[in-house]
Design brief:
By secondary structure, the protein is mainly alpha-helical. The protein is built from ten helices and two strands; from the N terminus they run αααβααβααααα. Strands 1-2 form a two-stranded parallel sheet.
Length: 262
């Protein structure tokens, strides 16, 4: 290979690196700005995350939280701001990733990739909403039911949660549900790539159910309510994935039939 050929291949590489740097800078700036905004209103966001606890307790006045180290609530607010910044900046970051990858894709590949780019945050938000309105209130009711009133020779046992541990519980559940709600995206992508088909998914259904409950047991707190609340929607999403994969196979068969007829 001549020096001119080496220079010719080096130039596109430098252009790609420059573009990658530009995309990374924009993504980081979006995250930093979102972090600053979320940190300035971290208290309000935390109060919003307390709503499931309030639903379980019956009122906001019945809730007592504490922090046991001077810096604990400050660190909790930083974690909360990072959590919120990840949510807010994700659409822009995903858009930057798509713009970087799209020029290297064929037109039909871009049209196939775009729905998954849209479906991923939508399904994640659905998982987060399920946590907020269903799973978290159920879990908190379960935890509150373990309290013990004092008297008659029994000690009083009252739940006084730490702010950091409550936030960790909420974030863990949101991430767990958000990831598991990506099941249709993952399975349909594998089907498009030809690794699986609807018949394979149907034949492996019983194993999938066992795996789903095992993953739910690992990702959620050690209580049956949270585990079942995560496992059941994931199983339903698995069934929905089978339906979507069947539609993909049907469209693929129609396209192949049209090509043969031509």
């Amino acid at each position: 290979m001549s020096q001119e050929d080496i220079d010719a291949t080096r130039a596109p590489l430098i252009e790609h690196l420059v573009e990658l740097r530009s995309r990374l800078i924009k993504s980081i700036l979006a995250f930093v700005v979102a972090f600053a905004v979320c940190f300035s209103v971290a208290g309000h966001i935390f109060n919003l995350l307390l709503v499931p606890y309030e639903i379980a307790a019956g009122s906001a006045e019945a809730i007592r939280l504490q922090y046991t180290a001077p810096q604990e609530f400050f660190i909790t607010q930083i974690k909360l701001a990072m959590f919120g910044a990840g949510f807010i900046s994700f659409p822009l970051v995903a858009n930057q990733i798509y713009k970087f990858v799209a020029p290297g894709l064929y037109k039909n590949e871009r049209s196939a990739f775009l729905p998954y780019l849209i479906a991923t945050p939508v399904l994640f938000l659905m998982g987060a909403a399920f946590v907020y309105f269903v799973a978290m209130p159920l879990a908190m009711r379960f935890f509150l039911s373990m309290q013990q009133a004092g008297g008659d020779g029994h000690a009083s046992i009252e739940l006084i949660a730490k702010t950091s541990e409550y936030l960790s519980l909420v974030m863990t559940l949101i991430f767990a549900f958000g990831i598991c709600f990506q099941t249709p995206v993952i399975l349909t992508l594998l089907a498009r790539a030809g690794f699986i088909d609807s018949a394979w998914l149907i034949s492996k259904r019983r194993y999938a159910i066992v795996v789903v409950f095992a993953v739910a047991a690992v990702l959620t707190p050690p209580d049956v309510i949270s585990q079942v609340a995560l496992a059941l929607p994931t199983v339903l999403l698995y069934e929905a994935s089978i339906f979507v994969v069947k539609m993909i196979e049907k469209k693929r068969a129609q396209a192949e039939a049209e090509e043969k007829s031509e």
